[in-house]
Amino acid sequence: RVNATVTRLNLLRNKFTVDGAQLLVEAAQAKGDQIKTLIGIYEGQTSTGTRLAVEDLRDADAVLIAFDLSVNATVTSLDLSGDPFDSDPTHKIGAVGAEA
């Protein structure tokens, strides 16, 4: 019998609404520390490099990124240059830095 536990998801670019993304974050938080990432960051990864810079990200993705930054303290660099968010994502992502 196999009992696997999901700890890593990549939900970027799924066209969720911001409210939908927030519900996903709340569900992940309800699992305690079981869910390590909603954007596919590997445990211990210190930089996502250009992986996110080439993605067509939306405001809801900023919510998912903010969750990852709040639970993955090893991320030291995140390149979001060139990402056409629906609006300025810094208020969604930057709030996490203020809380840390």
Explain how this protein is built:
The protein is an all-alpha fold and 100 residues long. 36% of the residues lie in helices and 0% in strands. It contains 3 helices and no strands. Helix 2 runs parallel beside helix 3. The longest helix is centred in the N-terminal third of the chain and has 13 residues, at 18-30. It is globular, with a radius of gyration of 13 Å. The termini are far apart.
What kind of sheet is the major sheet? none
Structural class: mainly alpha
* C-alpha geometry: globular
Strand content bin:
under 5%
| N-C termini distance | 40 Å
| Rg on CA atoms, Å | 13 Å
Quote the average pLDDT: 76
Find the count of extended strands (DSSP E, 2+ residues).
0
- DSSP helix count? 3
Which H/E pattern describes the elements?
HHH
* Low-pLDDT regions: 96-100
Helical percent range?
25-40%
Descriptive labels:
single chain; 100 residues; mainly alpha; 3 helices; 36% helix; 0% strand; globular; disordered C terminus
Short précis:
This protein has 100 residues and is mostly helical. It is 36% helix and 0% strand.
List the helices and strands and how they pair.
Layout: H1 18-30, H2 59-71, H3 90-99
Helix pairs in contact: 1-2, 2-3
